[in-house]
Amino acid sequence: MKEDLLHFIWRCDKLQGRPLTTSTSDNILIVHPGTLNRYAGPDFFNAKIEVGGQLWAGNVEMHLKSSDWYAHHHETDENYTNVILHVVWEDDVAVFGKDGKLIPTLELKTHIQPTLLGKYQELFQHYNPSFINCERDFLGFDSFLLDNFMERLYLERLEQKSELINNLLHSTNNDWEAVFFALLAKSFGTKVNGEFFLQCSGQLKFSIVRKVSADIHVLESLLFGHFGILDVEDCSDSYFQELSNEYNYLSKKYDLPIRIGKPNFFGLRPRNFPTIRISQLACLLATHQNLFSALMENRGRDTVYRLFDIAASTYWDTHFTFGRASRKSKKKLSRSFIDLLMINTIVPLKFCYAKHLGLDWSEDLLDMVSGIKAEKNSIVKNFAHLGSASKNALESQAKIQLHTQYCSKNKCLRCTLGADLLNRNT
Question: What average pLDDT does the structure give for the chain?
């Protein structure tokens, strides 16, 4: 038994029509259950409850046992002074507020239908799933319900990704281009070096990047040096020496900060080496001086594919690392990599920028991501094993959100699908 079940019973009107009384036998009428609070403080805000014929407006707190009120020290917490009803599974002790007054208590264990408890126990206790709690029922959900929930999950995921963007905006004084550069750096760093590249980008003034971006050689020198890729001992390669000399000049000219470390090459495929990715990033920024504006003004995938149709500089046609030649091949950005950039960088940034402008681009963004192939990862594969293959990136992103924020945390009763299961015939 978890408090989530009490929240579900309360917000889904499972008590509707039942004669309710407090532990002191006062009649209770739920006029409005209030709004669920997912943060610190009482569980439901702004409820309206009639107790003994008196209408009260305030908050509702829930516990498995009444004594949890004292275990959590609510009796001394100012946040709980406006609690008008204490809803519990089992009432084991009288509860008093900070002012010493008795708080009305509603005990639920005698009011819940056995069918609801049975479904709850089956979902959480009687079955040991290999992936998610509702895996046996997943294919049985109504397609309309599922499709709408997938869209809501995806938008929820965009909101979650907005946190990083908003933090970057704060740290750059709302410089959208600087934020875009930081997000690109993170994405070009891939999983292995993404956080390191993000940290490096934050220590480099984007105004410097703007100044040198017209010259690909100078920009490449700046990024290779600042991102720690030139920290190589005893390299006699002529191109390496050119970049190093240029970076040393830039370092003195712009008083560049001390490098914070070196990127990791271990475990990466050669095409994901930091050398290749940073050169591609430099070429992208040098080729399109107004890349951010171009992306914000155009909302189609074709525009993105066109703008990102670039390759690393010619030295890397025959190299993956400095001084070691390899078979000749153009190191272009692949379609799959551009797709990941759209999913993880471009669409979230456009989502935030639209909100900044007071516009709603939701339909355009949903259309953009719906036209991208689904990602390949363990979560998406496991849903496919249940018979729910992802048709596009919107669905794969939504399922990642579903699993990471609900399934893996056993938050089934806050999930539309889990609520649907428990609502059936109860």
Answer: 94
